[in-house]
Amino acid sequence: MSRGSTITHFGLGIRLGKRGVRLTRDNYAVVSNKSSFGRPEPYSDEWCQGHLAKTLLNFDRNMAFFSSLDRIKFATELHLFLAAFQEPTGQFQGEGDFLEVADLSVYDQVSGYYLLVLDQYCQVYLGRSTDIKKRVQAHWARTLPFDRLLFGSVSKSRLSIDSFRALDTTRVFVQDTGGPLWLAPENDMENDYILLFSDEFVCNRLRGGTLTGVDRLEIALDVDKTAIKRRQLPADPGP
Is 79 exposed, middle or buried, given 0-12, 13-18 or 19+ CB atoms closer than 10 A? Predict the structure, then answer.
């Protein structure tokens, strides 16, 4: 539903900004010579041009990867994920169902886990928040810094959930936990939930759960360890 310069998506008003409401190759990379890593000097024009070429190649490779995915397998895995909470013999029966959401405004300042489904790309993103509505809105509104579009090499970096736009999210499921239960590590289920899906269908760039100091160091050094989720993308996306 549209209204002037905004549209309504899952009960929330979405502004029709310059980047649009769906991800495209044209709106993917917003070139900037500013560092988001605290570096005082601006990036050179040469670096920006080279980085843009790499990010667009990575974009093309990700799109080719998405196109290769089995949609029936994706639908089956989503069904099995939900069944794991709903069925009497489900792995997570008793943890609370993931309910499909039509209006995210109901989840203002509500704690829990959320699952964003991007059907066109056969991708899901699973997260947690003490304010599910606000967190999902932040995903849709954010412009990922130019120097963070690549998270690893061109052949392995996943597109961030924050690179997709609002209308790329076609379904939302929420598990209301009644509070931030994950503050106690033994109750943090984020990674367990993510692992219910095959890795090819998950666009989380990091494993779920609270990251340790070692995890953060590996990320800062861009070390290919378990904290960072990589995927092997097609070498040549073709014309």
Answer: exposed
Do the domain assignments include residue 203?
Answer: yes
What's the farthest any 2 CA atoms get from each other in the chain? 59
Query: What is the value of pTM for the model shown?
Result: 0.89
Give the start-end residues of each E strand in the chain: 2-3, 6-9, 12-15, 99-100, 112-118, 123-129, 171-176
Number of domains in the chain: 1
d(CA 142, CA 162): 6
Give the count of beta carbons closer than 10 Å to the beta carbon of residue 204.
Answer: 20
Reported confidence tier of residue 41, pLDDT bands at 50, 70, 90: very high
Q: What is the C-alpha separation between 229 and 232, in angstroms, rounded?
A: 10
Q: Work out the pLDDT band at 232, boundaries 50, 70, 90.
A: confident
- Judge whether 203 and 124 are in contact, CB under 8 Å: yes
Write the CA distances from 172 to 6, 73, 103, 224, integer angstroms. Answer: 20, 19, 9, 30
Q: Does the pLDDT at position 209 exceed 90? A: no
Print the domain residue range for 123.
Answer: 2-220
Domain assignment present for 238: no
Could you give the CA distance from residue 37 to residue 39 in angstroms, rounded to a whole number?
A: 6
